[in-house]
Each structure stands twice: as structure tokens, then as C-alpha cells.
Amino acid sequence: MKRATIYDVAKAAGVSHQTVTRYLNGFEGIRPATRERVRKALAELDYRPNSAARFLRSQQTNRIGLLAHRMDLSGPGRLIAGATSAARERGYVLDIASMDGGDAASVDEALDLVLEHQIAGVFGTAQTHVVREAIEARALSVPIALDGQESGPGSVNIGLPGHLAAAHLAELGHRRVGFLSGPAVWIASAARRDGFLAEAAAAGLDVRWMGEGDWSAESGWAAAQECPVGEQGITAIAVSNDSMAVGLIAGLHERGIDVPGHVSVVGMDDSPESRFLVPALTTVRLDFEGEGAHRMARLIARIEDRTGSDVPEYDAPRLIVRQSTRAIAD
What we know:
Blueprint: H1 6-13, H2 17-24, H3 32-44, H4 51-58, E1 63-69, H5 74-89, E2 93-99, H6 104-114, E3 121-124, H7 129-138, E4 144-146, H8 160-171, E5 176-181, H9 187-203, E6 206-212, H10 217-224, E7 236-239, H11 242-254, E8 264-269, E9 282-285, H12 288-303, E10 318-320
């Protein structure tokens, strides 16, 4: 089947091919009604621009360097998926280099790898101060997007999951609570912990135990061996991600501690497996795919020196109540 051209799109939309070209180039001075007709025609004809030719004419590159840390984890993996889709839709390709976000030398090596080729920008997926400091030290001349760095329209408070978890436990009547955080080097981990502590203090909760894991289920299992659950211990635990919550519940079960009978557990992320656990995990849903698309679209708008009118927003974190938490009469 022959691919649609801009002339086909122009005919379907009832406009000139110059108008279609201006729309594709991000020109802002097109009337809303005309813009909508062009958008519909592009979608109906499944028009796909020849991005290689477009970038060749403009003497620009359509490659973006993506620095990836812990792609094995649900959150970073889903964020990269969203970023990749947004880049592809806009005619860009990604050069992905894996790295250890806690090791400056590893970040430098990843940067060296993507900078071997001409790139239009850098997208970083590791929420660590190590990554930010390593990139800032290079004084790159291309636009840069890092997780949690931007606070413009559509961005979400990364500490909100912690607030939501604490508020949920308080609403259920819990007063003696604990919190299992992720690695201290991760900015998101600290933000979720601080959000939880702030909401706990406002609600009058007694945070009797704090632990730190490495995002893995194994670290959650290890934490379960030391958290004080009992007659005077905690009655609920919030966990910084679902993987650690899974391990925590397994470890508590081995100790003969029932969830949610003896202790309630709330996770964060809403990983695909969380609703199929026994008990199904109460968690805070995060729109990682949407966030990745949002940050990539904002980066490309800066690369192309546009206002970013096509940057999609993403969903704010929200609580998903399942069977791992219950009300308590203290």
C-alpha cells in the first residue's frame, strides 16, 4: 500500500501542502480549526514523515542519547518505554547507553559512548545526584532532560506517593507505622520518604521504624526480619516500591505475621503484578510511561526551539486500594 504524502494530507484536509508542512514543523500561527483538520487527516491517512530527509535539510541530527540506569526495574523500564514512543512519534531515534547511576565513572563512560556520535540532546533516567553532577561537570551544549529536574506545566511532585500512603494509613486508623525506603542515593527515594514523614507528622502518626532497601524483593524480605511487628509494634508499613513490598509480605508470612490481619502493607508504583498477589497489594499508581513521554516531548521541543504545544501531560500519582491494607481499631 502506497504511503500517504503531504499532498494527500492537504487534499483530505482542504488546505495547501504548505500549511501541512508548517503544521509538521511546529508552526504556531495556524488557525485552530485548520490545525484540527490537518491533525485528523494525518491520523486518518496514517501519514509518516520522512524524518531522515527533514533532518538532512535542516542540517540537524535526529539522535538523542539516553542514559539508562536499572532498566531491570519496573519504573525505569516503563519510563524508557514511554520516552522511546514519544521520540519515535516525533521522528527521533535513541542511542541507549546503560550505566550505574551511583558511580560517576560509569556515568562518564556512558556519556562518552553517546557523544561519539552527533546527538541533539541527552535524556537521563537515573534519579541520583551522581548523574546530575557528572552531566553538569561536562558542560554539554545540547539540551538535557533528567528525571525530576523540571517543574514546569504538567510535572508532578515526586514526593506525593509518600503523602498518599501515609494519608491512607491514617484514614484507616493506624497510628504506629513504619516505612521502608529505597536506596538513599536515589532522589525519588528520598522524596517519597520525606513525603511520607511529612504527612505522618501532620496526621499525628508515630513512625516507630525506618528501613532502607535496594528496590529488590530480596531487600524487602530482609527488612521483614527486623521490623517490629507485635503487640506494641507497628500495625502498618509503607514501602517505596512494589517489589520490596512483595518481599516484605513474604518475609512477614515466614514469621507467621498475617497481612493485613496483623499488619497492613502499602506499596508504590502499581507494578503489573501487584493486583495478582495474595493478598492483592494496595499501592500508589505512578504513570511512568506518561512521564517518559512528557519529558521526552519537552526535551524535543527545546531541541527544536518550540513552545512545546504538543507535550502530553501525565497522570498524577493516585492510591489504588486493594486487600493488603485494612482499617484498625487502636
